[in-house]
Amino acid sequence: MKKIPLRKCTGCGEMKPKRELIRVVKSPEQLDENGNRLSGGEISLDLTGKAAGRGAYVCKNPDCFRAARKARRFERSLSCKIPEEVYERLNAELEAAT
């Protein structure tokens, strides 16, 4: 019997199968030889669950997304400040995906 990976929703805090959740991912930062940031750190929805980077999971329920946003749980999980326009884009993508 195959083990089903579980992840915790950042909105409601429930453990659910990974396939039932949507991953919000922060892409890894690319640095040049001097340590200056070239690219990376972008935050997006990962509908496949396979993108490289730090991830946080949320239910497909828009209420869970709003709860996680209000409590700044994505910022805590991804260890960065998330601009308002990124939240709006993620919300639009989430509405389109469900």
What does this structure look like?
With 98 residues, this protein is α+β, with helices and mostly antiparallel strands. It has one domain (8-97): 2-Layer Sandwich (Hypothetical Cytosolic Protein, Chain: A), CATH 3.30.1230. It contains three helices and seven strands. It has a three-stranded antiparallel β-sheet. A hairpin with a 5-residue loop joins β4 and β5. The radius of gyration is 14 Å and the shape is globular. The model has no long low-confidence stretch (mean pLDDT 86).
Walk me through the topology.
Blueprint: E1 6-8, E2 15-17, E3 21-26, E4 30-31, E5 37-39, E6 43-46, E7 54-59, H1 62-70, H2 73-78, H3 84-97
Antiparallel strand pairs: 1-2, 3-6, 3-7, 4-5
In short:
The chain is α+β, with helices and mostly antiparallel strands and 98 residues long. Helices cover 30% and strands 28% of the residues.
What number of structural domains do the residues give?
Answer: 1
- End-to-end distance: 30 Å
How much of the sequence is in beta strands? 25-35%
Number of continuous helical runs: 3
Q: Give the helix level as a range of percent.
A: 25-40%
User: How do the strands line up in the largest sheet?
Assistant: 6-3-7
The general outline is: globular
Strand count, sense and barrel status of the largest sheet are: 3 strands, antiparallel
- What's the architecture, going by CATH? 2-Layer Sandwich
Question: Based on helices, strands and strand pairing, what is the structural class?
Answer: alpha+beta
Q: Write out the CATH superfamily name.
A: YlxR-like
**C-alpha-based Rg, rounded:** 14 Å
Spans of at least 5 consecutive residues with low confidence: none
